[in-house]
Amino acid sequence: MSQLHLPGLSPLPAEHVVNVASVKHRSPFRYPGGKTWLVPRVYRWLDSLPHRPEFFVEPFAGGAIIGLTVAAEHLADHVVLVEMDDQVAAVWETIINRGEGLRLAKQIEDFKLTAENVDRFLRRDNLTPQEYALQTIVRNRVNRGGILAEGAGKLKFGENGRGIRSRWYPATLRKRIIAIDAIRDRLSFIHGDGLEVMRQYIGNNDAVFFIDPPYTASEKKPGSRLYTHWQIDHAELFRLVGRLAGDFLMTYDNVPEVRALADQHGFDSEAVAMKTTHHAQLTELLIGHDLNWLR
Ligand SMILES: C[S@@+](CC[C@H](N)C(=O)[O-])C[C@H]1O[C@@H](n2cnc3c(N)ncnc32)[C@H](O)[C@@H]1O
Which CATH architecture best describes the domain 1-84+192-295? Predict the structure, then answer.
């Protein structure tokens, strides 16, 4: 039985669409492909494990909603986040590795978000790491869909006609950053290659892995316009996952290429309902050794 003692977890059938408003948002990012909708299912996965894992490794962290939730709710002793993108890494390095989150939060609150200021600030280069983190947060909030990759457009008409300000909630961002700062000792951030870090934990049966790579295994490659780093050797990722001593949960788009890779490695998979930003109901594929906890 689980030792996590998560209160009252009822079954969550695959067709159930999670209401993301009921999930605590802990990330300062609005992240394309963000997994807020998966949080209730991650509780069930971790609750199904024989004990609290020592390490929770998230090799494709992005906005890191899952890893932050696991650390905040102490569902693993330690959470290791890995991300290759320089902009995203600047934020995590500032908050987690350098402990400068409170200063960043203050700078967010003080930033005067006008179209002119945004244009000027986003054009700046030669920034200090701290300034780069602030620039990333601003870019993430004013770009359509939170997309940080080159070529992403800025918001024009947002909620209530507030345009670029429609996703700018400085007081909320400040609270989230302060909350992350408070659990910093349970978090590590590595700016690098997630596959490399997975190899470092490969034989550790007290490490579990939440793996959410860019969705680029199919012809369509929906992830390729969302991230600067979208090229992944998916076959190698599956091979590596097959060699992990610890348990894992992987998410992908529900496409034949990915289902074939999962079958080839003898993994269990299940399509679950999620919501897109356009509120159309789509399914994503969850992959693991044994997903009976989901059913
Ligand atoms: C689907 S997103 C992760 C979203 C995240 N689960 C969330 O909820 O915000 C995939 C991420 O992997 C990152 N990435 C791509 N290749 C990588 C690599 N080799 N190592 C680490 N991160 C990588 C991308 O920059 C992107 O942020």
Answer: 3-Layer(aba) Sandwich (3.40)
